[in-house]
Amino acid sequence: MSRLLLTLIIAWATGLASTQSTDQLVYAYMLGDLWKFNLAGGSATQLTDWGYTGGPILAPDGSKLAYLSTSPEFIAQFNAGTATQSAGTPPANIVVMYIAKESQSLIADQSGAGAAGTLRSLPAWSPDSGKLAWLELDPGAQGGNAAALKLHDIATNTTSLLAANVDLGAQGSSVDMPTLRWGRGGIAMLRMDHQAQLIDFYDSTNGALTSYDLQLNKNSDNLVRDFVWVDHLGSSLVALQIQDYWEIINPYDGTRLRLSDPPRLKNRAITGAMQLIPASVANADGDWDIHWYATTGANLQNSGYVSPRVNYNFLPALSPNGTQMGWHGGDSVDHWQISMTEGNRALASAVGHGRVFPIPEPVSVVWAPTEWVTTGSVAGAPVLLSASLNCGLLPLLSAGQKAIVGPDLTLSLRSEAMTSGELLGSLEGGTVVAIDQGPVCADGYNWYAVSNADISGWTAEGANGDYWLLYHVACANSPATRLTTNMTATASGDEVVNIRDGAGTDNTEIVWAVAAGDEFVVTGLPQCGAAGLRWYPVRIEEKLGWIAEGQGEFYWIEPVES
Length: 562
Prior knowledge:
Layout: E1 7-10, E2 25-30, E3 33-38, E4 43-46, E5 53-58, E6 64-70, H1 72-80, E7 92-98, E8 103-108, E9 119-120, E10 124-125, E11 131-137, H2 139-142, E12 146-153, E13 158-167, E14 180-183, E15 186-193, E16 196-202, E17 209-217, E18 224-232, E19 235-242, E20 245-249, E21 255-259, E22 264-267, E23 275-282, E24 288-295, E25 300-307, E26 317-318, E27 324-327, E28 332-334, E29 350-352, E30 370-373, E31 378-384, E32 402-405, E33 410-414, E34 423-428, E35 432-442, E36 445-451, E37 456-460, E38 462-463, E39 466-467, E40 469-472, E41 488-491, E42 496-500, E43 510-515, E44 520-522, E45 527-528, E46 534-540, E47 543-548, E48 550-551, E49 554-555, E50 557-559
Parallel strand pairs: 18-30
Antiparallel strand pairs: 1-27, 2-3, 3-4, 5-6, 6-7, 7-8, 9-11, 10-11, 11-12, 12-13, 14-15, 15-16, 16-17, 18-19, 19-20, 20-21, 21-31, 22-23, 22-30, 23-24, 24-25, 26-27, 28-29, 32-35, 32-40, 33-34, 35-36, 36-37, 38-39, 41-44, 41-50, 42-43, 44-46, 45-46, 46-47, 48-49
């Protein structure tokens, strides 16, 4: 029997931080139900009374949560001793709760299910919080391990089939539904197949599958234990946790790189607040525990929280103001506090509870939206995995950003995201547009809906390793953008350009001087620095740093022709 631990760490001060009351409302699983905890007053309010509820999962915008609820039909069979299942993932329904009003809506039940019921995985939220994805299996009707990948549109309250015959991988006598994670690069899932471990990426628009063999032996100790979507220098990639190190994988071409440092969990809306760092430590059983550390950038403190593996069940949560943390784990529901400078903790309260099958697994505390980021530092050479590619290029743009057409190019603008769409016009090199929708993978291209004051339509991002539509940030004293992530560049003409350890010249140091012919790789998206210059994160050999593109109308660096 496992139990839960809800731990609260208050950072930046030795006492309990002074926060708004909304910062103190936490939603969490306890006793098989969903509860609301007011950490300021110590009160707890029970929101469901079924006793067979698991989760919850928070939407990225923080407005909604979703949870699993074991079906009443199965519980009746289980209590009567007639159920054919006694382990694994139980037949379950999915519920969405709107946090502001705490109103709940059943979006998936057992309608049309066979006698064994419909098994469902924990749902995953889309990056824009508008959809939910889950795996669904009716053992009696479908048989084997071939599941359906379903999508539910919150706005229209409709559910559709994204992909059929989804391979759940090798299973035992009972089915354990894999965990889905949804990022800008698609819907990801880990599975075991014979002696191999694979990661699958499903395109969230058309269900197309790209699968990579991770080249890890099923019987070895270096299997991927979990994975999360991370922001790596502006790109949305998947980070794989393997023993005491992490790797990142590009879902579009299978490139794998080992990270020099673990990824960090941070508050999605706040920069510069506390970040949480997982560190793998071998335990007495020969397995790996995860010790969590809190950092403000200036110092590092052991949070006192240890989880036996990285998983949704054990991910910490961060408060809306970014100064506090909480989690599930351990034997009870506890509140703790810690000083970042002294590391002292104090027990505030405890309420025990238990969990056994057929209650669904508990999941991370719901507090405020979080995201994973890397430090940008990688080690060693990339490893390229083979797969059938759908749209080749890693999409670098997203809705709400600005983009610029690359120099000396003319891009077609179409009525739909497809090569057969009606031709509406063209975009010349140097044209700046707003990204309204996308990316959409179709006909081998990543498409974006773009617009400016003169025209709107769909255009392709690039092909064959070349980007045509580039991320654009207007910096007051810089020439038009000519570079983007993964491009190789060098110094222009007779220029010698400094790579620095920060995006600017103040309080930064030179790490490299680049002359014509010295090639470096752009590793992320640019930002504006002091004096209105546009700075790019770059890598030259094993050095990382920042370099300015130019000043006024003059370029200091330029792309290398492929």
